[in-house]
Specification:
By secondary structure, the protein is an all-alpha fold. It has one domain. 55% of the residues lie in helices and 0% in strands. It has four helices and no strands. Helix 1 crosses helix 2 and helix 2 crosses helix 3. Keywords: Cell membrane, Membrane, Transmembrane, Transmembrane helix. This is PspC domain-containing protein. InterPro entries: Phageshock_PspC_N, PspC. Its main location: membrane.
């Protein structure tokens, strides 16, 4: 049976907390695109900063979401 996709933070190839890399893997897109969108949100009123900060604390690391991976 297929296990549903989970959102997680990456540990390999991360720049800050690994949130953008995890979001990119979840949506199967390039992490650079996610980083550009996140930066645009940051400069367009600061919501990107708060959203990233919340995700960094709430979203689990990949090793926690998929034990033994």
């Amino acid at each position: 049976m297929n296990e549903p996709k989970r959102l997680y933070r990456v540990e390999q190839g991360k720049i800050l907390a690994g949130v953008c890399g995890g979001v990119a893997e979840y949506f199967n897109i390039d992490p650079s695109i996610v980083r550009i969108i996140w930066a645009a949100l940051f400069f367009a009123g600061g919501i990107g900063f708060w959203l990233y900060l919340v995700c960094a604390f709430v979203v689990p690391k990949k090793s926690d979401a998929y034990p033994g991976y």
